What does this fold into?
Amino acid sequence: MEGLRFDFSGALARLVGEHGFRESEISAEENRMKEARESLLLRPPGFRNVIRSRGGVLEDIEKTADYIRSRFRNLVVLGIGGSALGPITVHQALGSDSPVKLTVADNIDPDTMDKILRLDPEATAYNVISKSGQTSETMAQFMAVAGMLRAKKLPLKEHIIATTDGEKGSLLEIARREGIKTFHIPQDLGGRFSELSPVGLLPAAACGIGIRKILEGALYFDEICMDESNPAMIYALLHVLGMKKGMNISVMMPYSDRLKYFSDWYAQLWAESLGKRNAKDGREIYCGQTPVKALGVTDQHSQVQLYAEGPFDKIITFIRVEGFGADPQIPREFGYVDDLAFLGGKTFKELLLSELSATRYALIKAGRPNIMITLDSITEFTVGALLYFFEMATAYAGEMLGINAYDQPGVEEGKRATFALMGKKGYEEKREQMREAEKTVPGFVMEYRL
It folds into this structure.
């Protein structure tokens, strides 16, 4: 079986009390939900279009993936943000039998970059991903890789695949001049929504993951999420209502190591999409929720104490997996220790799911709103469906909040400041502005050296 189940009962007041949501509150938002749905039907966001507008792109991706697998042992993805988190998430969930080793260079830490540059270049393909072609981190990585390949007398076009805008940008210009194979990112598709485009599909296909099944799951859930009442809409509404109640933290807690990085991917999707100063009409609203990543059962022993007895400022989403690929049995060892007898003969799945149920019970008893999403099993289909569900939930939340969920103006100032610090032409005035902001206050700087 390949399905998903959504249980919102744990967020309702009838289970968790005064900090939960009354069914009358939800019913009162019927018009808001209807308007959000109509807006998404009238103006489909780019991620809705990309799962349909394939042309010959899928065949091209699969052909390129075959080339990578036949020629190389390593695939390095050069990207940051959605260009990195999506491929990492899908590979962790589905890529255990990958015929090539995937490395995602999602940071510019000098020590990490040194290790990446030491990989055998003859056995390595590089997929550089930047829609604008001006992402400083990614383009610096690309320049380092290109310099290394040239020094080794290896042709760039045999080792590099570019994924970028199809009409403009520095990366597109370089790819054309160097004869580098290129996949295009649609104009209306932002990085954090791009996993179901060539951004995520090429690395997945190169690792032997069935990308057509991923898209099948996404398409299936596109139909579901446009119903008049659907789980993405309800998920979004509960979080929007929660923000009004002071629930400014959204916890994502999968109980599966294979889904571990879904929390990281969700964190960018939810934070960057919904954290906005201004509404579409220009009003200052300063909205958003802080996403927190957790992993069951690991973080039962680090975070659940806070969730159970700390401030009532969180909505917790559990992800449960019903069918695992394996389920080792716990042997009946140490029979002379009575306190361990209850474990013998059980399986690790039984223990894991019992701990999930127990944690949810404890949080309900403590009056903490929570949501349970259950996957029958982790497959290409269910992973595609789950990715798409969260993208749709984010889109619905954006509509309900009256914001643009697809831009990131707060990030741009930092980019401009980086350009100024690194000496990019045209940013001299910004550098002078930064000198004033960089002044320190005596007595509030402490420095120690041995």
Q: What stands out?
A: The longest helix spans residues 380-401. Residues 255 and 401 are 30 Å apart (CA to CA).
